[in-house]
Amino acid sequence: MPEAGILRKKGDKSTRAKKRREKALFTLGIYLTVLTGTVLSGIISGAALKEIFANISTSIVGIMVFVYYYLKDNGKMVENILAKRIFIIFFMLSNVIVALESVVQTGTIWMLAVAVIAVREGMGHAVPCHALLMLQYMVLSPGAAGNIRKVIFHAVLGILLAFIISEVKRKKLFIYAAVILTALTVVLLLVLYRFDFYELACNKEYVGLCTAGNIILLTAAWITYCIDKKHEHMVLSGLFDIDSELMQRIMEHSSYLYSHSVQNGRLSYKAAAFMGFDRLLAGTGGLYHEAGRIYSEKGDIDAFNRIAREYRFPAVLASAARQNSTSSEKPKSPEEAIIMLSDCIISISEYLEKKGKREEITDEKIVKNIFSNRIAKGNLDESGMDRRQLNKLMGFYIDNAFSEEQNLLDMERYG
User: Fold this and answer.
1) How many CA atoms lie within 13 A of 84 on its CB side?
2) Residues 230-249: pLDDT tens digits?
3) Average pLDDT of span 203-217
4) CB 261 within 8 A of CB 247
5) Do residues 175 and 182 make contact, with C-beta atoms less than 8 angstroms apart?
6) H-run or E-run covering 414
7) What pTM was computed for the model?
8) N or C: which end of the chain has fewer CB within 10 A?
9) Does 155 or 290 have the greater pLDDT score?
10) pLDDT at res. 414
11) How far apart are CA 217 and CA 213, in angstroms?
12) Would you give the distance in Å from CA 388 to the centre of its chain?
């Protein structure tokens, strides 16, 4: 067997072992975190041993469902967690706060993990965490016992929190998130107290706790977002380099793939800069949109995710770099749309060149056909660009995509 094949097999075996270890540690962390909270609640509240064991049994059922959800499909949900330690640490903090509910009201502060995880990992992880925390809240909080309205209040507010925070893509949008969350909290509190303002006034302490809790949740989410953005910029700056380690691996794998990737990175960078979008994200995503081909010639999603984990791609880069001419995912941002469109334009031009038909079709026709096709299929519906912006972007591609400058451009000019 060739040496390269032996090394590849050893690497695959090592990767599988690492995945198994990560899944085992994640499972252990969830069990210890939740059960510690349950036991702590029983101790500080002076509950009878029988009651503590009953609560532990209920918690174990919830954990089993949660862990099953995360480990199904070979543990893809676990693999997709970008920062597992942060995930477990904040989940532990929320479980401790829920445990305190057995002796003191904590308002909405126990949803801390939901807010932080929504920023770092997205709604897909925040909601399952909220579901398990909700079970703990129902089991451990005396205020939840027999009060279905209070349970519904926290259940709905947690899901809304996860949705609102996960949709915040820019710092200034936190102001709107705060306004929306506050308004929804007020509505849910009115429903909780049946629009009885006298009862609402009698429970002003709890209303105050919820208000303070929301401020803490939004502040924690904002701090997490700022830290993530700073780290994200640092990582992108390191990767946006044609001499980076990963680009050298792409070069060793295929000189054609390297050339194609560099072209896409350059064109995506220029297009994003022209439109006023995040040029560093678009350029870096364009460079690595086909990086998965190192492990699989098909460039499938599993191969790409393996690269993303190896080089610790920030979530926004992992999502953007998955965009290419064959991607089934709709672009969720202008930068993702630019990467996809750049790849389509470059790939179509390369194909026509290979078939000897490139001179028969004008640059304008290639670009307009690609835009018309993508718009008709609804591929750009979620990109965040309106028709005016799309027309402006199309004009840029017609004027610049096939210019000599694009072919000879030195990447360092855009560092």
Assistant:
1) 18
2) 888 888 988 998 889 999 99
3) 93
4) yes
5) no
6) none
7) 0.75
8) N
9) 155
10) 39
11) 6
12) 28
Backbone angles phi, psi at 251, to 5 degrees: -60, -45
Tokens of 180: 């929306």
State how far the Cα of 189 lies from the Cα of 200, in Å rounded to an integer.
8
Phi, psi of 171 (to 5 degrees): -55, -45
Tell which residue, 108, 118, 119, has the closest CA to residue 153: 108
What's the mean pLDDT in 310-339? 79
The tens digit of pLDDT for each residue in 112-130 reads 999 999 998 889 999 999 9
Closest CA to 279 of 325, 345, 338, 319: 338
pLDDT, tens digit (0-9, with 9 covering 90-100), for 47-87: 999 999 999 999 999 999 999 999 998 888 888 787 889 99
Q: Which of 335, 328, 402 is nearest to 365 (CA)?
A: 402
CA distance 58 to 141: 14
Start-to-end C-alpha separation, the chain: 42
Q: What's the residue count for the chain?
A: 415
Write the DSSP symbol of residue 105.
-
Tell me the CA distances in angstroms from 410 to 265, 291, 332, 351, 415, one per residue in order: 11, 21, 29, 24, 10
Closest CA relative to residue 393, chosen from 335, 320, 352:
335
Return the H-helix or E-strand segment holding 122: none
